[in-house]
Amino acid sequence: MKLISVLCPHCQKSVSISPQSLSNTVQCEHCNKPVLDGKPIEADVGNFDMLIKGPKPVVVTFWGANCSPCNSFKPIFEKVASEKKKQLRFLRVNVQRNKALASRYRIRGVPTLMVFKKGKQQSVLNTALRKKEFVDWLNDTLNS
């Protein structure tokens, strides 16, 4: 069975999880906090494809470290991730470190937001949003 390696969003230590555990809440073996719920996971080329195939819809932000809109959107993304942890999973992809993913999804500017359901891209938005607009966009995307 192939394992997926992710960084725990709480303690930043590597955790290996099985693809079957994507439907469950996985506890970090280092800090005992939930790995997949409540905080965005830093995704990369090695784990992205498996993470977007989970049973919950997945919200991804493609971002850059030197991007002011990305940095101002980060706390909004994290707040919504915490509020919607039962319904959705949240991933962050640094485009400078993951150029192959940025190229595959034709990322031309950051932040770019995408929603996936069972591995299939459902929606894309090329901008940062205020919290209310972000939640409205998610609700519209998931209810269509």
Automatic annotation (TrEMBL):
Residue ranges annotated for the Thioredoxin domain, each copy included: 11-143
Protein name as annotated: Thioredoxin TrxC
Annotated organism of origin: Photobacterium alginatilyticum
Organism ancestry: Bacteria, Pseudomonadati, Pseudomonadota, Gammaproteobacteria, Vibrionales
